[in-house]
Amino acid sequence: MIAPPPLAPPGVVTSDGLAADLCCFPTREQYFALVESFKVDGFEMCVDVTAVDYLEHFDRPLPDAVVASRFEVVTNLLSLSKKQRVRIRVQAGNEAPEVDSLFALYPGTEALEREVFDMFGVIFTNHPDLTRILMPEDWEGHPLRKDYGSGRVPVQFKEAPGPR
Amino acid sequence: MIDPTIRTAERVELLVAETSEGAQELKRRGDTRSDELGREVGAVLRVQGLNIDPNSVDFDRRDDETMIINMGPSHPSTHGVLRLMLELDGEFVLRTKPVIGYLHTGMEKTAEELSYVQGATNVTRMDYLSPVINELSYSMAVEKLLGIEVPERAVWIRMMMSELNRVSSHLVWMATNGMDLGSTSMMIYGLRERELILAFFEKTAGLRMNLNYVRPGGVAADLPDGWQDDIQVICDTIYERTFEYDQLLTGQPIFRQRLIGVAPITAEEALALSLTGPLLRSTGVAWDLRRAMPYLAYDQVEFDVIVGTYGDNFDRYAIRLNEIRESLRIVRQCLDMMPSGDYRSQDPKVTPPPRARIGESMEALIHHFKLFTEGFHVPVGEVYSAVESPRGEIGCYLVSDGGPKPYRLHVRGPSFVNLQAVSLLMRGGSMSDTITVISTIDPIMGEVDR
User: Fold this and answer.
1) I need a surface site. Which of A116, B24, B289, B425 has the fewest CB within 10 A?
2) What residue numbers bound the domain in which A33 lies?
3) Closest Cα in chain B, distance from residue A10 (Å)
4) pLDDT tens, position by position, for chain A (164 residues)?
């Protein structure tokens, strides 16, 4: 029913994820080229781009060659013709996370990357319009970071409206 | 009270400052980067290599020839709090940009504070028209990490409930779409039929919406006595009435003129924009996760994947109408093939003990206490599970650090991604077409903003 997972190009660390997914662990430099090679290989759609803040888990299970960093950007590609998924986990850095935008390959990642930027502060280089998408424009901080402190800071509102 | 010392012009400035979303808004042409301008008019999709085709972007147009106006966030046909900024040339739309986030409630952050048992109550509120399917994608992700199998009967109950949910969601769509296009009777009929399904949900789960019915390990309750009769009535009634909708809408000249050939999209554009669900199928791509990557027991039932040809508004309407019929077909098969047995896993670490056992068994009491105070622990790992919601692929990316709460829960909302198509679909259309475009994209703002 489910075809065997696709092969990743040489030089990219992989592991078998759960549920017949292939997991790739490219470096930041390899990331864009890897996605491009998957696109050529028949992965027509980039389903999802998200990120995880592993602030408390630098020791998480990863293949040996991968150096864990705080932020991890997770991209899900889907091949309609082969009925396969591939998950790409790129270590995006610790202090100033930054990866290439996939916009040039998959324009549908535009909103997803903006959401990751909004929620985690990950910079996507070459993104056409990297602005906040869910939070108000004058919001401080990136809410899904683990050091953001939910429930401990007062809710931010704009100044009370003046007399109308 | 109006302060007489503040002049009108200042008041306008104050209002603008209060409601401004700054860089998230549609900017004037002069202030927009060329690649962003190309994206906003959908030109990046029209040529190979995704470069901007200069012919489809009118770079020369000056800002004083056009007008940027707001539609929403509280506009009756934006289905919630969607705000669209439109650049208009007279009656025609040049650029569109959705500004979202007005319903953002931080549900992904909330999920990190809730145990896995409580998590289903959270995700069920995202896409409030298809709660069962949200819960399903979440529960399947948790079960994959736990490595547990759910009993056969639970699988079939889940499948039947998700198909009923798909019908009710599409009925609401039929209703609101009818209302957007001026058929208020369709709104009443659509909501009337949906009521049948909601009544069954209430009978089964105790709630009409936000059911919290599908939970990790199975479902919350067995089907009520006499459920077969209820399902029979639901299937017969709604199936018959879909033909009444046909009579009311499908052949109606005004309805047809507002849908046929309006806002078409090609398969290449839909794939590039990561569109899923009826939007993608309307372009002729027969991609339905129920068929392509079967989950639950969808490989054991017969149904057709409905596809369109032209990718226009009418195709999207016809697909949803026919999907109601196909879903009812699946529900009927569930009725015949429903196995007997447990409706939830009997693993005491995951499933709470029956109420009666708590009074007589110490072990059951301990399990109950542990489950509802701390919750169960899920092995370290990360998993992505995707199911077909009425709007497309709803995915749940779950990261566990071995504790009783998810380390990270991300929901890939189909509405959120599908909303990117508005810029492309509205371009060149008239102002009145924007209503039909929003309607046929069918965004649920609860899921867009999460």
Assistant:
1) B289
2) 13-125
3) 24
4) 344 445 555 556 665 555 456 788 888 888 888 888 888 888 888 999 999 998 888 888 888 788 888 899 999 999 888 888 888 889 888 888 889 988 888 888 889 999 999 999 999 988 888 888 888 888 888 888 888 876 655 666 666 665 65
In a domain, A132, yes or no: no
Bigger pLDDT: B11 or B343? B343
Q: Give a yes or no: residue A108 inside a domain.
A: yes
A23 in any annotated domain: yes
Distance CA B337, CA B351 (A): 25
Q: In chain A, how many domains are there?
A: 1
Dist. CA B58–CA A11, nearest whole Å: 44
Contact predicate A73/A49, CB 8 Å: yes
Q: Which of residues 95-154 of A touch B (CB under 8 A)?
A: 103-112, 115, 119, 128-129, 131-138, 143-144, 148, 150-151
**pLDDT per residue over A127-159, tens digit each?**
888 888 888 888 888 888 888 876 655 666 666
> What's the pLDDT at B16?
78
The Cα-based distances of B76 to B69, B180, B409 in angstroms read 16, 9, 32
Identify any residues that bridge with B83 across adjacent strands, giving them in sequence order. Answer: B99
Picking from A45, A48, A162, the nearest residue to B14 by CB comes out as A162
The DSSP-derived string for A45-73 is: EEEEEEEEE-TT-TT----TTPPP-SEEE
**What's the rounded Cα separation, in Å, for the pair A116 and B397?**
14
Residue A100 is assigned to a structural domain of this protein: yes
The CATH superfamily holding the domain B116-408 is Cytochrome-c3 Hydrogenase, chain B (1.10.645.10)
Cross-chain residue pair A80–B106, CB shorter than 8 Å: no
Instruction: Return the CATH number at A70.
Output: 3.30.460.80
In chain B, domain spans: 23-102+419-450, 116-408
Q: Are strands A98-100 and A84-93 parallel, antiparallel or unpaired?
A: unpaired
